[in-house]
Amino acid sequence: MLSGGLDSLYCLHQAFIENQDIHIHHLHLKNIENRAVAESIAVKNILNYYKDKHFIYTESMHVYPVINNHFIWDLDICSFMAGTICQADPEITHILMGLTLLDTSKEFMNRFLRSVDILTSFLNKEQKIIYPAIHMTKRQVYDALPANLRLLAWSCRRPIYINDGPIKCGECIPCRSLNEF
Questions:
Q1: How many CB atoms lie within 10 A of CB 34?
Q2: Averaged over 82-107, what is the pLDDT?
Q3: How far apart are CA 29 and CA 62, in angstroms?
Q4: DSSP states of 14-38
Q5: Domain-by-domain residue ranges, the chain?
Q6: SS3 string of 43-66?
């Protein structure tokens, strides 16, 4: 599940380091944050970076219903899509999910556990979920990636578009955490 952000990019990079057969899936998430275009640009650049590697690439789209200015958490949708891909291809043995230390904080624990339940409801006994960055901060993930690769990632939750190009908002949680260094 490659969003184009640092966390999922770290998972992909680790999979390539381990020379695994890889199925990359990008889920275009269309919501009120309007980051789907920025993430798609990042994914395209990341795939180009790995163009000499062997992998399967698929993509799909989810358009969020917004109710009272709220929408479902991304991880629920990603877990559902990862699960359906694993059901379609039972040869997949490992599902790498790009979650960091913040995603399992007390504030987000219920959401994390719900996403695990969603994904595991689709899996067979041989399929395992792996969270390579679960004990890392966003800064540690950033530092662990090669410099030329980490610059391809997009992590802003609410990009601003100027001349059809995205720029970071500077105010969302990922922007603030990345601006710290």
A1: 14
A2: 90
A3: 5
A4: HHHHTT---EEEEEEEESTT--HHH
A5: 6-179
A6: HHHHHHHCCCCCCEEEEEEEECCC
162, burial (CB in 10 Å: exposed 0-12, middle 13-18, buried 19+): exposed
**Does the domain made of 6-179 have the CATH classification 2.60.20?**
no
Residues 6+ apart with CB under 8 A from 92: 23, 85, 86, 127
Kindly state the percentage of the chain with pLDDT values over 90. 63
| CA–CA gap between residue 22 and residue 181 (Å, rounded) | 32
pTM, two decimals, is 0.89
- How many angstroms separate the CA atoms of 173 and 37, rounded? 19
